[in-house]
């Protein structure tokens, strides 16, 4: 029960983050926006870590710390892909596609020999079908050709990368959640800073700084909830319930942002949401 509550809280936090960051990345380089969210988040985490935690002790904890640090660069690449998608596409489309990370995680497990059982037999192919439908649209009102939906490719790439992360977080769960997130955030900034300096620059317009702060709070809160849910387990249940970010993104996009996906895309979004729900129940 606690795993489900934490996972859904994470999904809500990530949806709020995506909703808030859209306006920033449509006026600012993606790496610049990402750097500000990450650095503010680290400013929140470090005092908490210093207050409640301490350095790892023993070989097993240091190994866990190394795995926790590895999650940081993976998350940075995944979020950068997500933000690129949100910069050009609809939240109601890109969000559900990015939320397929749980499905990719299941696919990786199957590729390494885990049998397909229960509702996953239906959920996984449904996820594929939903992704395809949500990712295409007509080239124009009077055209028959089909083109890729703006941002859809970035959303799917984000999901592919995110599918790796729950396994690492599970292996790092020997450490408290706040330590896992702090080590990951430090490593992510070490990777992100030089690329931001070269490709985006660090200057963020004053009008977006408060919004970046809100995004950082949502990001840190969501990540802490995810790590805690993964530590409690089971990992499969936590990862696919976090994927309900897709459901929430679709709702936010079509109600708050007044986005209007095509009928084919709506069918794909619905199939994607149903797929992650089946995977969650089956997990």
Task: Give a quick summary of the entry.
With 283 residues, the protein is an all-alpha fold. It has helices at 2-25, 30-52, 59-88, 91-98, 101-111, 120-134, 152-162, 165-171, 177-199, 206-232, 235-242, 245-255, 263-282, and strands at 136-138, 146-148. It is built from 13 helices and two strands; from the N terminus they run ααααααββααααααα.
Q: Which terms summarize this structure?
A:
283 residues, mainly alpha, two-stranded antiparallel sheet, 77% helix, 2% strand
Gross morphology is globular
Element-level helix/strand string: HHHHHHEEHHHHHHH
- Domain count: the total is 1
Low-confidence stretches: none
**Helical percentage:** over 70%
Average pLDDT rating: 81
The tally of strands reads 2
Helix and strand content put the structural class at mainly alpha
How large is the count of helical segments? 13
Strand content: under 5%
What's the story with the biggest beta sheet? 2 strands, antiparallel
Strand order of the largest sheet: 1-2
The N- and C-terminal alpha carbons lie at a distance of 13 Å
- Using only C-alpha atoms, the radius of gyration works out to 18 Å
């Amino acid at each position: 029960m606690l795993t489900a509550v934490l996972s859904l809280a994470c999904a809500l936090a990530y949806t709020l983050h995506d909703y808030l960051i859209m306006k920033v990345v449509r006026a600012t380089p993606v790496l610049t926006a990402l750097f500000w969210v990450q650095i503010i988040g680290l400013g929140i985490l470090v005092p908490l870590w210093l207050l409640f935690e301490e350095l790892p002790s023993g070989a097993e904890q240091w190994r866990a710390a190394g795995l926790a640090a590895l999650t940081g660069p993976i998350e940075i690449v995944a979020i950068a892909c997500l933000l690129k998608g949100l910069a050009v596409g609809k939240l109601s489309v890109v969000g559900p596609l990015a939320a397929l990370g749980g499905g990719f995680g299941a696919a990786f497990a199957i590729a390494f020999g885990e049998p397909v059982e229960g509702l996953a037999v239906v959920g996984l192919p449904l996820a594929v079908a939903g992704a395809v439908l949500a990712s295409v649209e007509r080239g124009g009102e009077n055209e028959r050709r089909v083109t890729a939906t703006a941002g859809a490719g970035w959303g799917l790439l984000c999901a592919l990368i995110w599918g790796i992360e729950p396994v690492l977080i599970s292996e790092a769960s020997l450490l408290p959640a706040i330590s896992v997130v702090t080590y990951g955030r430090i490593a992510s900034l070490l990777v992100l800073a030089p690329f931001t300096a070269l490709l985006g620059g660090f200057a963020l317009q004053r009008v977006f700084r408060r919004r970046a702060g809100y995004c950082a709070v949502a990001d840190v809160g969501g990540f802490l909830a995810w790590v805690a849910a993964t530590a409690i387990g089971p990992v499969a249940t936590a990862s696919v319930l976090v994927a309900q970010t897709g459901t929430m993104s679709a709702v936010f996009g079509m109600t708050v942002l007044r986005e209007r996906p095509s009928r084919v895309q709506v069918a794909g979004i619905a199939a994607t949401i149903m797929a992650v729900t089946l995977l969650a129940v089956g997990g």
